[in-house]
Description:
The chain is α+β, with helices and mostly antiparallel strands. The protein has helices spanning 3-10, 24-35, 54-67, 72-80, 94-113, 131-139; strands at 46-51, 83-90, 116-121, 146-156.
Amino acid sequence: MNELLSNVLTRKSVYQFESRQIVGDELCDILEAGQFVSDTIQIQNWHFLVIQKMEVLDRIRQLWKDELSNNRAMQNSISMAPTLIIVSSQKDDTDTINAANATIGNMMLAGDRKGIGCCWLPLIQSLFKSEEGRKLKQDLSIPEEYIYSSALAIGYKANLHKQEVLKHNCIVNFIR
């Protein structure tokens, strides 16, 4: 099996992270992988916001707890991750919004290849609908014409035991 396919088939979401911060080349490589997603017209109108400042992470964690209290696994990942990458894209460009979400997949694969755990947080836009969420968005200096597409919680894996790779029932229809 080639290396890329092996990485795709064995990568797992991580919900427990060490507290030490990801820095330098490892973080830059993950971000670079996210930049290499193409969209239909090659505009790539997305933006990555990397948050490592504890007071900002704490504000996001509190919003997450208040708004998404029913999603335990995602609560754990955002509560423990030392780095959060929020991906935003232009509001009125559906192609860019879809491509911005695809950047997460590239970053997850790059992180896993380096032994860095990742958890995709697709519900991040829900956090910015409340009054406190809108204030946070303003404080984060994201332009008004951009919306949050999704986010990625990343950090060094705290639990290093190998998880079993789940075999999915694949439903495929061929029209030939």
